[in-house]
Amino acid sequence: MPKGGKKGGHKGRVRTYTSPEEIDAQMKAEKERKKQEQEAEGEEGAAQNDLAEEKLPGSGSEDSDDENSQRRRAGVEGLIEIENPNRVAQKSKKVTQIELDEPKQLSRREREEIEKQKAKERYMKMHLAGKTDQAKADLARLAIIRKQREDAARKKEEEKKAKEAAAAAAKGINSLSLK
Q1: Whole-model pTM over 0.85
Q2: How far apart are CA 78 and CA 111, in angstroms?
Q3: Which residues contact 56 (CB under 8 A, 6 or more apart)?
Q4: What's the CA gap between 86 and 173, in Å, rounded?
Q5: Which residues of 40-63 are buried (b: 16+ CB within 10 A; e: fewer)?
Q6: What is the mean pLDDT of the chain?
């Protein structure tokens, strides 16, 4: 039996497509409906602002800000008040509120990274001064190598002088025998 039972699946049905004219008509209707809603809210908002100004004349701008934030809510959010403890509302800070003078609190990893870099710099300074164990060992090894090279150079020079002396002695013998 095929996958969809006796009648078959959805693939054999005739597909219907929305014509571009219908789409345009739907979009126009949606725009008109939104305009009407905004106009209605604008009239209600103006009436509420007038009432708020009559009640408290000094706080008219603050009330309108609160109402604008309520009006911006879309869908069901405007109808139902939901208090989500996990949701963190992003608060925008003004430039005057940002304190640049205060040192930034570093995380544990950042602090450890900075301490590690400082320790490495201190070690390198001591190493270059020759105060660490590793530096002392390196300097001792270098001294031994210099001494070995000096000895090898001296030995080579002595051998060279010995060869020259032997060559001169051989020439001296040849020159005496020719006379």
Answers
A1: no
A2: 46
A3: 63
A4: 109
A5: eeeeebeeeeeebeeeeeeeeeeb
A6: 78
| Cβ contacts of 121 within 8 Å, gap of 6 or more | none
CA distance linking residue 29 with residue 25, whole number of Å: 6
Residue-level pLDDT at 76: 67
Residues 59 and 52 sit within 8 Å (Cβ to Cβ): yes
pLDDT at 47: 59
* Side-chain half-sphere CA neighbours of 62 within 13 A: 4
Cα 36 to Cα 25, 40, 41, 42: the distances in Å are: 17, 6, 9, 10
Q: Report the C-alpha gap between 44 and 21 in whole angstroms.
A: 35
Alpha carbons 57 and 90: distance in angstroms, whole number: 30
pLDDT digits 0-9 by tens, 92-150: 777 777 766 666 788 999 999 999 999 999 999 999 998 999 999 999 999 999 999 99
Paired tokens of 57:
């004349």
